[in-house]
Amino acid sequence: MGNRFNSQSLILVGCTLFVLYLAGIPLLMLLYGSIRSAPIGEPGAHFTFANYVKAYADKEFYLLLLNSVYYALGTCTLTFLIGTFLAWVSERTNTPFKKLFMVMSLIPFIIPGILSTISWILLLSPKIGLINIVVKEALGLEAAPFNIYSMWGMIWAESIHLYPLVFLLMSAAFRNMDTSLEEAALTAGSSTVQTFYTVTLPLMRPAMVSVILINFIRGIEAFEVPALIGVPAKISVFTTKIFLAIHQFPSDFGLAGAYAVTLLVISTIGVLIYGRITRKEERYATVTGKGYRPRVVDLGNWKWLTLAISFLIFLLAVILPIFVLLWSSFIPYYGVPSWELAGKMTWGNYHYILNYPLAATAFKNSFYLSVGTATLVMLLTSVIAWITVKTKLPGRAFLDTMTFIPIAMPGIVLGVSLIWVYLTLPIPIYGTIWVLLLAYMTKYIPYGIRAASASMIQINKELEEASFTAGGTWFQTFWKIILPLLMPGFTAGWIYISIIALRELSTSILLYSYNSTVLSIMAFDLWEGGQYTYVCALGVLMVLMLVTMAAIARKLGAKIGIAE
Amino acid sequence: MAETRDMVQIESLEKYFGDEKERVHVLKGVSLNIPEGSLYTFLGPSGCGKTTTLRCVAGLERPDGGKISIGGQTVFASGERVYVPTNKRPIGMVFQSYAIWPHMTVAENVAYPLTIQRKSKDEVKRRVSEVLKIVGLDGLEDRPAPKLSGGQQQRVAFARALVNEPKVMLLDEPLSNLDAKLRVQMRSEIKSLQRRTNITTIFVTHDQAEALAISDQIAVMHGGVLLEVGAPHQLYTRPKRRFTATFLGLTNLINGKVLEVDGDSRPGKMQTKKGVLSFIPAPGLKKDQAAVISIRPENIPLHKNKPEGLENVVDGTITEAIFMGDSYQCKVAVGDDIVAVHTHPFNTVSVGEKVYLHLDPASCNGLPADDKEGVDESNMGD
Q1: For residue A476, what is the nearest residue in chain B, using CA coordinates?
Q2: Residue A221 lies in a domain
Q3: Which of A24, A191, A318, B132 has the most other CB atoms within 10 Å of its CB?
Q4: Residue A327 falls within a domain, yes or no?
Q5: Which chain A residues have a beta carbon less than 8 Å from that of B105?
Q6: CB-based contact A517:A365 (threshold 8 Å)
Q7: Of B62, B83, B93, Cβ closest to residue A466
Q8: CA–CA separation, B6 vs B34, rounded Å?
Q9: Tens-binned pLDDT, residue by residue, of chain A (564 aa)
Q10: Which residues of A touch B170 (CB under 8 A)?
Q11: CATH tag, B242-368
């Protein structure tokens, strides 16, 4: 006799084992590998702390730690300032054109990190940087005023790429704040400034702290900017050090493991603190609720200043990088925009990219990986979200926790871990596209589960019970009722994951082989080879691909399920 | 039971909610039998276990003990470890929220129970148009579900529950989301639908007026216990439990002690603060037992002069008289207590007037006072 409760438990056990395989095993193998004297499989390997001794005894380790923390702190501070300013302007002031802000802030999301980094090198490099050359000529300077190859250059390139997240989160925080709480303080006789310090700030604090922490973690984990700018500038952080330890000859897996564990510990501490704070934040949120009209401050003539600053930010974050990418993709050799060069504009770079020996493989791999990862992750996390949200099965809390583990794993750490796993386990997928698929799935499960649970919570339980009472099995119910109702969240999660999967670099770079090359790797290699204009053409094609995929996904999602 | 077969049998059903630390006992040995073809109502305040019982019948909750059978087939038995999953039970269910799937049209919603069984297209089409006709929605087949009114959504929910020709229909407070006027209309439609289809129907509600109007039988539940079962008229006029008397409409309760009782067919006598009163005893009421007399406000004739030759006459003063159109609703102070009396609008009454109340023994139900499950609602009047 079939038993719905037993089949539920079976699904729970299946999901838990799979998530453990994806997230738990790499973690264990990383810890194991970091205390082995030689790579697994090599004869004579034994347990040792030598890797840690070697790592921590080196003076360079402390320089790395200092650099990483400096870089992450700089990034989270700068992103916080830019993002919060824009959020405040857009939610709480009467600055003109603020409706455009949301669009402008979403555009950087779709530009892969490697491209945004490249665009800033092309803008701020002392030799070829567009801004440098223009400013130098305009002011008659001897030397270039800006140098991207510096700590602050790195922080700038990272921040201008990461600030949109701050903008979105802080906008939501401003929007959800019950302004009657501020008004109550004003009517109680407190001045605007007093109100800001005694009411607004304490209410916003959880949101602020969590936003800063997220970007601290993202700064610590960042790979593209440190690899493209930091390495030539000889400014090392943990992620690039791990990369170099593996890419040197011979690879020092033990040392990479010791560094990776250290990086993992730092980001785990960040994630744990973040988890505590957001739980508290949710408590605040339930007290306040939603649907408030924000109190808009009339800035008077100052509104033109806020508009000018905002426009400057968008000029720097959106317009200039996109312009320099587009421009460089159409010119035969890199140079400052001029009428002379404009006359030589050509499709040559695109021809080159499309005829590049590896291009077809890279486009195909990236497309399959991006679509495959997004689809599989969303299907898996939809089932997991159903278990954690809709059932009362024991063990669902453990499953929920497991799905969040990967968020504390920086991409480069995951890469190191998976090298260990697939060099050890008798599963012959090392160096194939499958190992990348598993890596991407592991990495993006936390994002999928967020999108899926948020939607799942909104589905009335009676809708699925009606299917059971109508004679539907669990599978029929999930396929015909739950999944279509979940479509808005499913699609949103799918689009986000397919975008970030298509531009993934930090994990792929440790796991790819010739046949499993992806677009971001191809871009990285072209850049390392100094072929700037080709990279830009490739980047433009990547962005076009992303936009098309997102548009199709939205259409399909609306067709299958309920419209948003 | 008698000549009719029982469609649903529930034996000593037990259910707990919560984890080890905080276990709540929500069903405490509920047993009942539902005759085939009847409209059977679970009535009680929120938290009484009525919805949980219904969900156990549906298989949406798994009981912790007891036995349930539908149409002679055991669908749950704790001892024999039998548990038939919801989708294998011969039921149709209408949910409180109607649970109409918003991503489907009316026809797709109604056809769902058939399509998942892979019935032929022709048969599905025929059955769907049949049931839509029954619920009065023919012509709306292709309307998307979100574009339906509350009443229409409910009809779709009924059609969907009916389409599979279930042995039992389960209705979980189906009227609670409708406005007052539509509620009354749908109530009589449900009743006539049930009469026409003759499908055994379980109806869950907390609304006593709804229960009285619609049911063949009502099971009154409170605190996870089934208090009593009876036809609406019987439960209203001759309740056996104090909770039933107070929950089904307004009543006056007069505390006392049984002086003499002789079975439940002959009147007994009770010592109260208002003197010795005659009453009709509930079964099992014993001499010297603490008891209450329950008498409904509309059953108390009000006299200006002391009536002669009648039993159970008490005197009091009118402290409140509200004209309601179809009645005067009076509060009469009798000693320290207030008695609610509803009288015919032609009986002009005024506050401060001295009156005599005839507590006709035939209208006085003597009930056990120590009703452990019943809440203490010994409010005279109100």
Answers
A1: B116
A2: yes
A3: B132
A4: no
A5: none
A6: yes
A7: B93
A8: 5
A9: 344 457 788 889 999 999 999 988 998 888 888 888 776 666 677 788 888 888 888 888 899 999 999 999 999 999 999 999 998 888 888 888 888 887 888 788 788 889 999 999 999 998 888 888 888 888 888 888 889 999 999 999 999 999 988 888 888 888 777 777 777 777 777 777 787 788 878 878 888 888 898 899 999 999 999 999 999 999 999 999 999 988 888 888 888 888 889 899 988 888 888 878 777 655 444 334 444 556 677 777 888 998 999 999 999 888 999 999 999 999 888 777 777 888 888 898 999 998 988 899 999 999 999 999 999 999 999 999 999 888 888 888 889 888 888 888 899 999 989 988 888 888 888 889 999 999 999 999 999 998 898 888 888 889 999 999 999 998 999 999 999 999 888 988 998 899 889 989 999 999 998 889 999 999 999 998 888 889 999 999 999 998 898 888 888 877 776 544
A10: 469
A11: 2.40.50.140
Residue A477 lies in a domain: yes
Residue A562 with chain B: CB contacts under 8 Å: 102-103, 146
Q: Which residues have CB under 8 Å from B95's CB, separation 6+?
A: A462, A465, A466, B157, B172, B174
Domain boundary among A320, A355, A390: A320
CB pairs under 8 A between A and B: 87
- Give the domain CATH number at A313: 1.10.3720.10
End-to-end Cα separation, chain A, in angstroms: 40
Nearest chain B alpha carbon to A8:
B85
Domain shared by A115 and A59, yes or no: yes
Residues 34-93 in A contacting B (C-alpha not used; CB under 8 Å): none
Q: Are B314 and B357 in contact (CB under 8 A)?
A: yes
Domain that holds residue A91: 54-320
A483 and A364 part of one domain = yes
Residues A548, A541: Cα–Cα separation, whole Å: 11
Crossing angle for the helix pair A348-355 and A532-560, nearest 10 degrees? 70
Q: Is residue A45 part of a domain?
A: no
From B86, B96, B101, residue closest to A469, measured CB to CB:
B86
Closest of A173, A171, A170, A194 to residue A182, by C-alpha:
A194
Whether A205 and A65 map to the same domain: the answer is yes
Our count of domains for chain A comes to 2
What span, in angstroms and rounded, lies between the C-alpha atoms of B7 and B364? 36
Q: Where are the domains of chain B?
A: 6-237, 242-368
What one-letter code names the amino acid at B13?
L
Inter-chain CB proximity A470 and B92 less than 8 Å: yes
- Alpha carbon distance A506, A413 (integer Å): 9
Task: Say if the Cβ atoms of B87 and A468 lie within 8 Å.
Answer: yes
Q: How far apart are CA A535 and CA A349, in angstroms?
A: 9
Is A563 touching B (CB cutoff 8 A)? no
Determine the CATH number of domain B6-237.
Answer: 3.40.50.300
Give the domain-ending residue among A320, A355, A376. Answer: A320
Q: How far is B58 from chain A (nearest CA, A)?
A: 7
B145: distance to nearest CA of chain A, Å? 11
Instruction: Tell me, yes or no, whether A407 and A280 share the same domain.
Output: no
- Is A178 in the same domain as A250? yes
Distance CA A19, CA A403 (A): 7
Q: What is the pTM of this model?
A: 0.82
- Interface check A10 vs B, CB under 8 A: no
Q: Report chain B residues whose CB lies below 8 A from the CB of A489.
A: none
Top residue of A1, A390, A392, A469 to mutate, by most chain B CBs within 10 Å, is A469
ipTM (interface predicted TM): 0.83
Residues A30 and A110 in one domain: no
CA distance A478 to chain B (A): 12
Query: The tokens of B382 are what?
Result: 């109100």
Same domain, A212 and A276: yes
